[in-house]
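[job 0412] stage=fold_complex status=start
inputs:
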Amino acid sequence: MNTGNLAATLAVRHRAVLGFALAAVVTMLILGQQNTAYATATSILIFSLISIPLALIYGHGGIVSLCQATFAGMGGYATAILTVNYGWSAWQALPLAMAVPGVLSFAVSRPILRLPLFALVLGTVAIGEAWSFGVSAAGDTTGGYTGIYGIPGIPLATDDRQAFVVIVIMVAIMIILFENFTRTARGRALNSIRVDPTMALSTGTNVAHQRSIAFTFAAAVAGAAGWYFALYTGYISPVSLSFNQDAAVIFMVVIGGRRSSVGPIIGAAIYVLFGDLLPGGVVQGVLFGAVLILILLFMQDGIVSIGSPLIRKISNNMRTTKSDQCKTQEYTVQGSGHGDA
Amino acid sequence: MAMLSATGITVEFGGFRALDDMSLSLESGSILGLVGPNGAGKSTMFNCLTGIVRPGVGQVILDDTDISQWSVHRRARAGIGRAFQTPRVDLDATVLEAVLAGVGPRAHETLLGALLGSPWVLRQEKRFRQDVRQLLERLNLGDGRQIAGTLPAAHLRLLEVARVLAGDARYVLLDEPAAGMDESDRAVLANTLRGLAQQGIGVLIVEHNFPFILSLCDRILVLSSGTVIADGNPQEIRANRQIAKIYLGQAI
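[job 0412] stage=fold_complex status=done
writing structure:
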């Protein structure tokens, strides 16, 4: 009974990651052993890993950041420099790939997160621009405009399919962290900060500190995505993860669902798939812009909000059935008691 | 001594003196009423006690500790809970979630524990949810599944009160919680507040409904232009002719 309860609780808490794992397995069954489409699927998940933490700080914390992909770029560069220039292994580079954007974002977070919304957005854009200028001008260390080639591959993976499994695991971990965090007092505190900072303060939240922690966490996860990106493509340059991608990940979060862990994955899929299908540049920009405006006007919680009433209905049904079963059991016990007497 | 007190508080906004050498003390287990016309300084007093306003002159003392320089969130964690005049509630959340936002002062999870969903955090979370469900029942706010934005205004105020109680505050500051409430809601609120006082919680309440405040409070302060012009128990306030004339006139 107790184990049953625990399993039910965990199933509700982790239905997002279970759904994601199912989708990943189905994708692999369809694509088989070898398929060029793994590159597309992997690219969707790299963007997902960058945008899910953005959904946490934007959808829950109300922090609009236009340098989330730049933080991934920092992780990518840290990986490239350490592996290519200093001969570190990919595993050794991972902590630093997360620490570099983590430390940098923490350092700038206090002053920048105090700014009003519009200035904050401009501030984050400035971080991205400064970074991309910096790496372009840094000479041999970063390879300047041409970037760094010859980064070793994904550890443990010998083909595209195995590399896909690695990013699936990374995204799955992120989803679990997201779902756990949003169901705790800390997660709710972040939400309170977006709803009303004064209310957040008066319910015991150190607003400046919690915002800063969230911003740092998002940057560190982006760093891990950058680590994977650099290893997967074997190459990184100033334009790999820069302003265009900063804007794109915001698009993914808003389109897919800014408060959900799986919404950004849907957003990333739409962005990557339609990006491949549609003719380039201007047409894409116009179309994505239009979709973005429509979503912001009519569906503030993104595409996942279509599904959520359905999920709620199903889980309510499950709950009702379960309590009915409990009642039945009680009656049975009583009945047998009478029988014995 | 277990009390929250303010002594000699003076606050000026530009040239306007909102509080002028004002003092009050809220004892544990008592209900203190604060009345006065608009602009008398009631909300400013609340803001001084909770730390949103730092007075230029004067001290705020919590159980013998000078907390004048403490931040808002630190005071909240030390047990000062506050409901706002205009409800500050996540209107898109369910009632349960909106009240759960108030457990902050009781929560002590680490960042890692929260991210990993450690057994300790899960247990804490379960306890919080149970406590909040009990609170909702006590305040007649239903099973908590309703969206907060669909509640009538009076119930939103009750929700504010519930959120303060969810944080286990030792001193509860309520800014016009009964505004717009009907008789039955007011009765629920009054019973809850009396229950709190019996548990040893100090309740400070700002209210315009004079009969309500006279029936509820142990002591009443009457404010005007930032100073206390009368201080006493309900009988004394009722007997004070000047106060009765100015503030109660038509009300009684």
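[job 0412] summary: DSSP finds ten helices and ten strands in chain B.
[job 0412] exit 0
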